[in-house]
Amino acid sequence: MLSAKIPSTILIEMKAVAEASISVPHVAEAAFSMECTVEHWYDLKNDAGQTNYTVILGRVRRFQAKDFIFDPVDTMRILPERLKAVSRMGGISYGRTLQMVELPRLAWSNVKDQDEVKAALDKTPSPPKL
Description:
4 helices
C-alpha cells in the first residue's frame, strides 16, 4: 500500500503541477484532468457491518485539457483516440479506452409507459421496507 506521505508522481516519474482552485496538484503530462472537491462520501459495509469500500462524490471546480485532444472542426468535442483515456476496471486493473459506442440517452418520461418497460418493472422486486 502506498503511503499518503509519498506523492505517487515520484513513483511514475511525472511532474506535479499546482492547481488553480484546489490544494492537490495534477500530473503535468496528463492530457485531461479535473480539479475536484469532495461533495460527499458513502461508506459501503459488508454483512458484518464493516466498511470495506467508500464511494466518493466530487464536485468539479475546473477542467484542465490540452489543445491536441480536441477536434479541430468541432472544438467542443474531445477525440477519444487522442485522449487515450485510462479507466479503472476494478481492483488494481486498469484499461485503455480505444473504441467508443454511442447510445442515445433515454428520457424516463418518454419510455415509462412502454409495455416492455412496464413488464420489466413488474418483474423487479420491491425494495425492503426500512
